[in-house]
Amino acid sequence: MKSKLLLLIFMMVVTVAFSHDPYQEPSLNEVILRAKKARGVDQERLRALVALVNSGHDLFPPDSTIALLQELLELNGRLRSVDPQPYRYLLSGQELLQRNHPDSALQLFILAIDELDKKQYIFGFHSYLTSVAALFDRVGGLQRKLNFYRSKLVDYTLTGPALNMAGCFHGLAGCFSMQGDYDQAFTYYFKALEVYKTFSPSGYAEELSVIGYNYAKWGNFRRASMYLKLADSAGREAPDPIRSQFCYMTRALISKEEGNPADAMNYVDSALRHGIRSFRIDYAAILYAISIELRLQMNDQPGAFTLLLKMKRLCDSVDLPVEGGNGRMEVDYLFYKYYLARKELKMAGQYLLKAYDEAVLVGSAPLQQKYLVELFNLYRITGNPDRSVYFAAAYFHLNDSLMKYRNENNISRFEREDTERRKEAAIADLRQKKERQRMYFLAGGALLFLVTLGMVLRIWYIRRTKKQLEEKNKLIAAEKELAEQMRLKAEKSERFKQQFLANMSHEIRTPMNAVVGMTNLLIDKNPREDQMTYLNGIRQSSAILLHLINDILDLAKIEAGKIELETIDFSLHDLLDQILQTMRYKAAEKGLELSGNVHPDVNGIVMGDPVRLNQILINLTGNAIKFTECGNVTISVMPVPPGPEGMIPVRFSVADTGIGIPADKLKTVFEEFSQASSSDTRRFGGTGLGLTISKNLVTLMGGVIRVESQSGKGTTFSFDLCFPPGSPEKLQERKNSEENIDGTILNGLTLLLADDQEYNLIVAGDTLRSKADVNITTAMNGREVIELVLNNQYDAILMDVQMPVMDGLEATRYLRENLPPQRREIPIIALTASVLKSELDRCREAGMNSFIPKPFTPSQLIGGIAEALRIPLRYKSKDTGPLIPEIAPAEHAATNLDYLEKFCEGNRDQMRKYIMMFLDSAPRLITQIHDALAKGDAAEIATQVHGFKTRWVMMGMEEAKTLASGLEQRCRQDPGATEISKEAEHLIRLVEKAIGELNEWRVMPSV
């Protein structure tokens, strides 16, 4: 009885052992069907979503994949059935891919694959393990792709699951196909085919289709047709529209190459019909390419061009692979074929060269060969033998470096190996069956077998435990190595960021130094009054551009927490006047009224950072003008309830009558690159960085920025800041130091000036010579500096930091270490375009005494040299010139010269110049408006009024400016309006009144 029981147990163990089914990948249709049925069952719904994300993500648009991942994570948040980390990586990667950051998305997809590997997740044919190959191609990472799949193949070979090797074999085959090494490519395609056959009918059929397509690309159409038929046969049990479309597409390619255009067009039509169900836009692009070439062969150029435009839109709208007829370079190649057919050889050559350059960039050897042959023929036709020979030589050089096996009549080595493996597998299967029969006949020895089996299981358990411990130790070591790599990568990234900011600062600010410096030199040469106007404009524009450059650097510094605020005495009135003057023309261009006021109860002189405060208000005012079509923009500076003792609390606000911000967008207006509506970017431009910088700067100053708005009624931005009270005496002293420094304090000095830019040498040298009697020697690099210093005596050295041959830092270190002791302390002043603290610290560490930023003002240059040589500063008394007669405007005067006086900085002759220009041109304006009214020519009235815009502002003619803006708009929008004549006559009366008010300036003597 006991022996019978043991025999029964043995038979059950054998039955279970031999009835275990291998893993079978569900088809995509099964996954979608299961997802629909599982709508009401959360656990089943979650399983279906996991399968959809892995097995169908590359068949859906990015928005659909993102929606699936979001639903998966939300559902798993309640069920907690799967590890969410890999799907978080996939979601972030898809979002980055949608924003056109493929390299960052690729890194996240690889991290997701690593996370799934830890759980020995089995990947299918359409998994991320295979689809990342297209991303590697997109970023030009052929070698990276090769390394990735080789590394993964090693891991799966050691630790499993073995079924994931199929994806790696497929990826490696694609790498070698891209390089034109079809021997290696087909070896790996057949290895992938062998593995897919064991677990994935869909993957097996897909791989057969891919092999057929590659045979067609290789030119072996007989074998391509054979494998396409095998793919159809393998996929009959589960019809797949994707594979069917791919097969029809390949047959169309074969028919086209064999010279059967009618068959090819039929296959194209069949493939497009299947494409409706497959969602594969990349296959559609290939089909368009085939159809285009067929139409060109049939001389249907208009039809080919129509399809070309469709194909280009497809390639621009999605991330298509590079190979085949669907990549962007193939679009360029087809444009070449189109223009070649039209005999427009110049256009054809441009597109062909563009296609060749992209093929070189991604490393596609077959496409390079194809384009080189076309380039050779094209330049031969156009009569350019040198270029033709050049591309022929390039083709033969590339051809010699590739392995080619294109004999249609021989079966290649890898197919023979595949046949042998099939035979060996069949023999092994027969042996296994015979062995199984023997086991049934040995049932009588059940007791002995069970004892033996127990011992084997014990040994197996010990070995498995040991293997698990070894794998765990490997995993811990790998995690430690990964953590160390991530740390080193983060440190390297930070170094690169700092280096990038330093280089950007230097490369942009260095040419700006020449612009600002030479402008100052020209101003010091006593230019004519009309030239002075242009020079002042250049100087103001340069200052604005420098602030914009600093804004870019500020954003990085704010994010890193390294921005430093300045604390100096400044005037709120001067700050507001400067902003109004800067933004007035921008507002006038749109016909807006820009105004500002400082409340009488506000203490006008405070201590703080005027540059940063100016930056905030300029950003807010510029935004208000940009988003206001009509009305006004008002800047207000008002007192607020008392703050901390000894501080002055002030509220700043910028209000407009513009388009406003919807209530649901108010919370996002301060986000980076954000605007209230996507249409705003198209209408008004901009990147959405201004409000982000403004908010960060207000927070840094200890305030909070607020926004109030209604759609269509306007917006108000406001913030409160507290300032220590300022000193009028220190403010005046600072102004004097900036404007009236006496350069003669440097008389008699001998200076060495080193810079590799000739413009910078001219600017610095002429600036110093115009202010002081100094002797200047110049050098172009650090080695010349050393030779001059060893042979001559200098009072100070002005040294650029970045120079060829030997830079300023290296030259300074050499001088500090090798000069005689009595000369080692010679002052060395850095001339640097960098504003980063890390760069300035490097200057000090090298032995430099101080630094002068580029671009510099004359006062900065003179003051920096004086500080290094410990020469006391001295200031000239400011010559204000004769006082301008105060002309108090009448109660209803047409003009107000306050703005003109500020614009000309009190220069009476310059004011008179602008007034005389107005008096000379105003009568012509009146005559031309009268003539246009007589002819009923509203467009001419608008043109004349528009051309006088600047003069309204310069003469302070606010009423005329407002009237002219409305009149111009009415003339352009409603030329037949009856109000035009009335408003034009009123404007003429205002101009005549202004002429009468300003006529007395004709007889005022010049200064």
Quick description:
The protein is α/β, with parallel strands linked by helices and 1007 residues long. The chain is built from 39 helices and twelve strands.
- Please outline the major beta sheet: 5 strands, mixed
Q: Please state the second-level CATH architecture of the domain at 568-723.
A: 2-Layer Sandwich
Number of DSSP strands? 12
Biggest sheet, strands in spatial order? 2-4-5-7-6
Structural class: alpha/beta
Strand content: 5-15%
The chain-level mean pLDDT equals 77
Separate helix tally: 39
CATH class value of the domain at 568-723: Alpha Beta
Residue windows where pLDDT falls under 50 for at least 5 positions? 1-21, 319-327, 404-411, 681-687, 879-890
Helix-residue proportion: 55-70%
Classified in CATH, the superfamily of the domain at 568-723 is Histidine kinase-like ATPase, C-terminal domain
Give the CA-based shape: globular
Features:
Rossmann fold; 7% strand; 5-stranded parallel β-sheet; globular; Heat Shock Protein 90; 1007 residues
Structure description:
- The structure is a single chain.
- The chain contains 39 helices and 12 strands.
- With 1007 residues, the protein is α/β, with parallel strands linked by helices.
- Among the domains are: 1-140, no CATH class; 568-723, 2-Layer Sandwich (Heat Shock Protein 90); 742-869, 3-Layer(aba) Sandwich (Rossmann fold), CATH 3.40.50; 898-1003, Four Helix Bundle (Hemerythrin (Met), subunit A) (Up-down Bundle).
